Amino acid sequence: MNNLHTKSKMGGSLRAGCGILLFILLFILIGRLLTPYDHLSQNLAEALESPSRSHWLGTDHYGRDIFTRLIYGGQLTWIIAIFATLIAIVIGTLVGLFTAWWGGWFDLIVMRLVDVALAFPRIFIVLLVIGLGGSSIELLIWLLALFSWMETARIVRAEVSTHKNFAYVKAARASGLGTNRILFRHIFPNIAGPVIVSAILLITNIILVESSLSFLGLGVQPPFASWGTILNEGKIDPLGNWWISVPAGVCILVTVAGFNLIGDGLRDLFDPYRLN
Amino acid sequence: MANFQGPILDVHNLCVEYSTGSVNLFSRKRKSAVKNISFQIQTGECFAVFGESGCGKSSIINAILAFVPVTKGLIQFENQNLLHLFSSVPRWIRPQIQPVFQDFHQALNPRRQIGSLFKEIRSIYPDRPDSAELLNRVGLHCDVLHAYPHQLSGGQKQRVGLARALSTNPKMLLLDEPVTSQDLSIAAQILGLLKTLQKERKLTFLLVSHNFSILRLLADQVAIMKDGGFLEINTPGQLIANPQHDYTESILKQSGIR
Ligand SMILES: Nc1ncnc2c1ncn2[C@@H]1O[C@H](COP(=O)(O)OP(=O)(O)OP(=O)(O)O)[C@@H](O)[C@H]1O
Ligand SMILES: [Mg+2]
User: Which of A118, A210, B168, B246 has the most CB atoms within 10 Å of its CB?
Assistant: First the structure.
């Protein structure tokens, strides 16, 4: 009875998360069909208008339509987050697979480097690089990725160390299959669950870090905007011009909540001790 | 190689130690599981290891396959050294020595259909026997090819493991408790199959078991193992008639043999 209850609940959080993200995706992908404005062209005559029938969410200091900017800002936020997460997951998975497989000194040295990387004041380094080198979208993606793969590497390494000693892997080795084949075709499918969960948790984290950087003026640079940049543009008079930053904040919050719900749902789903 | 002379497997002074956690950064706690074991197996022979649970039987098999750290000793297969610098069995020798593992529940990849295992092996060794035929030989229907491991019973998994081991056309099988979860008729069928294979292909076995009555049906030589070492090696008949150690006598008595 208890079981049935928890089971329907976790299906629920998965479904709710998917619903939320689907809604946001529809908004940023086909939302521009709903608005006649351009996200970059300025119209100072209509600057800082509050929400109205012609500008649903009002305009900013340059007279740009906020609703339109949220749509394009969302696209940028998602693109940066997805690419950074993909790169981080690929690096983390490869490092985890090979450190666990080869073990010994290679494992020891690489994992100590991971510890060092984790102990580094990462935000500080990001600030330093961007402060010195200027910000571009590509740089932002690589920085976010390079500072996020370590957790995945640890998870993958732990999983592979367990599977390495299972008889099915020993049998595959004994029959003469190559290392790559065993790692990617035999072991990886068995650990894909935890990797997917860590990807979901990673993407929420990366969205938050990117938004913070953009809010601080170090991420996406105007006139282009991510949700964090828009948040920044509203900070001159947050109470007076609430319509600039509040919707951007809500978008970030809702997206992150959506991913978290999915992460929770998947973690329960992939739990090996779950009763079928 | 067909007319290879001398022992197919020659194990000399084998020692296996496991590290069980570290004392500090530079020294580790070690547990010795196999101590100075030597034996030879002739082509077409069945060599059996008999001993209580935890005495180190599986460790011998894992050492031959280079899955555990060998601290000392020599293992030769047809005069070729199996223990190399990076402690991995040379790739071309691997298909010739095939294991059937004791923990058969883990011996099949849970995410893969049985058929894909055989397909994969045939993709690297194209001249190997047909999977349906192999399954037939171990008494399984070829429907099993489309099943996932969790859809099979323990005994069926064990037989798939045996078929998988045979699929590379090995010269030697390492059998770790090969019939533990079979009912008597199927156990007899598998033992019969192993006997036939032994005759037909001059297949060599290293058989490990804690069940003497199964072991004596196949074994030409039996080693009595205790705490990681061999006490004596003899034919099963001689061991029963004329045990050299008190331990041999008592353990055979416990098994209801004497
Ligand atoms: N990976 C390992 N790490 C540390 N100790 C191990 C490891 N594998 C086995 N041992 C120890 O080595 C000893 C021998 O183990 P082994 O698996 O060879 O026994 P066995 O004779 O096959 O027993 P059984 O009949 O129960 O299978 C045991 O005491 C066990 O605790
Ligand atoms: Mg064992």
Answer: A210
